[in-house]
Prior knowledge:
By secondary structure, this protein is α+β, with helices and mostly antiparallel strands.
Amino acid sequence: MNRNATAIILIVLAIGIYFTFTQNIINQAQIEQAHNVQYTTAITNAENLISLRKQANDQFINIAPSDQARLSQMIPNGTNNIHLIVDLNNLAQKYNFSLSNIKADVVNATNNNNPSNQPVANQASAGTASLAQVKVTFSANASYGDFLNFLLAVESNLRIMDISKIDVKANDTGVYGFQVELRTYWLQS
């Protein structure tokens, strides 16, 4: 009977140790194993991104210098609002009018999920740099044909510009008053 009692006590003790100590260690090990899988996945994703970035950089290096210059003209590496305004005004002068009340501002949007309502840059990820917007507003007095030709020239310009708003005021002289808002982009590092 003594052997049976010892065996029963050892079995009960083993079951007690399992439920009080061993099961907690097994649960912690499973949690750590799940974290390990997440970290391994993150490392694999990071290695893939590094590889893709290297491939993109190698492709960019293989682009002809003249094409690289054109790409930097499409989306410049910085905002030079004065140069942008001068270019737009020179373009307008080709069509027999000039721009007035010109303003160029970097766009900041407020985040509705931000309770402090602090400005948040309106940008999209572009590698290590982000794509930021510049809002340009101006007025012009021109004939419809001249202004239409100006808009077509803006559309075919290398620099990406999206016209977001046009207000037209008509009069009897054939010269219309235009209020224009457009957006252009630049890489912000």
